[in-house]
Amino acid sequence: MSTWTLERVVDELLAAETERRDRGPITDEFPGLDIDLAYRAQDALLQRKLDAGERLIGVKLGLTSRAKQQRMGIDAPLTAWLTDAMALPAGVPAPLDELIHPRVEPEIVFVLGEDLKGPGITAARAMQSVEAVYGGYEIIDSRYTDFRFTLPDVIADNASAGRYGVGPVALAPRDLDLPVEACLVEVDGEIVDTATAAAVQGHPAEALALAANALAARGHGLKAGWTVLTGGITDAVFLHPGSTVSVHFSHLGTVTVTGA
Ligand code: OOG
Ligand code: MG
């Protein structure tokens, strides 16, 4: 067996994604994969996608709510990259034949009107850079079997990023009391979870500030026009063929995705 290198981490994760197969945690075989190296792998994986023609369109946060942290057994938030290939337009079914074991989670989504770069960004400052707030969902699709991973594993795996979609309503930050914005998750007509956006770090703007500061430490900034997924508000639900997940937000409308 060849030795583990950063490039091999990227090769194996990309192969799992394109061949639609899950695998054991890389840290089981490569304990030297620490958080720093994992972020370098995440950046290298992004670069491969950009080289293949995808466009960088934003960032996502992971594990920003207690519900997500408890489910995954990791209590530290992380950041990852969004490309245009991940965006699922409204009404387009989720392509289950391209995914491994997709799960859907509700998210507050920001679109930035100006650049935002740490360090020292507060939630209030972060919110000034937000042009529009949407209710959305993310389809996570870990490349690891049973979504079992350590923090470096999930960082290298671009935080399980799969697809995402945004709802029909865009509001300016001042037109919304974001922490009390409620969401209700429904699977085929059955309500399976409810929460308010305060579940995300007390306020999703805290998650945006966290991303700006964490990315700055690695030399990156967020750009005007970028989309930011602030992290799952509730636990994620599996998306099965023919099944529909709807997320109803109190002011941000309803967003729906069906597994095809
Ligand atoms: C890790 C990705 C988490 C979120 O919103 O918390 C994430 C996972 O749960 O597989 O996207
Ligand atoms: Mg998410």
TrEMBL record:
Name the record gives this protein: 4-oxalocrotonate decarboxylase
Pfam families on file: FAA_hydrolase
Domain Fumarylacetoacetase-like C-terminal span(s) in chain numbering: 101-256
Tree of life domain: Bacteria
Keywords noted in UniProt: Lyase
SUPFAM superfamilies: FAH
GO cellular component terms, semicolon-separated: cytoplasm
UniProt keyword annotation of Cell membrane present: no
KW Zinc-finger (keyword) present: no
Organism: Georgenia yuyongxinii
One MF annotation (Gene Ontology) recorded for this entry: 2-oxopent-4-enoate hydratase activity
